[in-house]
Amino acid sequence: MMHHRHHKNEDLIEIFAQTFYHKYQTKLVRGDGEPVYLPGDDIDPDNRIIFAHGFYASALHEISHWLVAGAARRKLEDFGYWYDPDGRSVAQQKIFESVEVKPQAIEWSLSVAAGFDFNASCDNLDGDEEPDRLAFQHKVHQQVAKFLENGFPKRVEQLINALCDFYQTEKPSALTQFDFDGLKIKEPCYA
């Protein structure tokens, strides 16, 4: 099986555009600062998924949030979600992790489709107490198992197929493709 050694942002931007631009008027944009989703406005009628500092992993992560968001949320800046920065309390961290499980499971699936390493992230270096990374990792892995059992949402499936076609990888279809033991925990993940 052939794997591309270099994961280029330009390739991912083009794959995303070919898969979604026509129907959703949404483009993936390399940003210089923090990641953000911006719905179309008077300055730019296109919806923009802006990923951080040209990091391929950030692009996959931000795309995953877009794939989770429904039509109403895609009309709101950052999908209408709050974001407490690094330094969250234990209670804030639990809320953060609960809304991150599904996007990170999608991100992991996209990573497998692209032949790219996935890094789970609790994203809270300066919090009140050290997050339980292993427990969070298990939740993400369990969500992957649910997707594999019940099927991926339509847009996720479309992008997985496009990534597999481009990178000539095997479609994620078995939990054995998601190497839990080799999974890295990296902090911070997408900044």
Protein model, in words:
With 191 residues, the protein is mostly helical. It has one domain. The chain has five helices and five strands; from the N terminus they run H-E-E-E-H-H-E-H-H-E. The strands form two sheets. The chain has a three-stranded mixed β-sheet. A two-stranded parallel sheet has the order 4-5. A hairpin with an 8-residue loop joins strand 2 (36-38) and strand 3. It starts with 8 loop residues before the first helix and ends in a 6-residue tail after the last strand.
Low-confidence stretches: 124-129, 185-191
* Total strand segments: 5
Strand order in the sheet with the most strands = 1-3-2
What global shape is seen? globular
Report strand %.
5-15%
Structural class: mainly alpha
What level of helicity do the residues show?
Answer: 40-55%
Mean pLDDT: 84
Oligomer: single chain
SSE run: HEEEHHEHHE
Query: The biggest beta sheet, please?
Result: 3 strands, mixed
The total domain count is: 1
Count of individual helical segments: 5
Distance between the termini: 32 Å
Radius of gyration: 16 Å
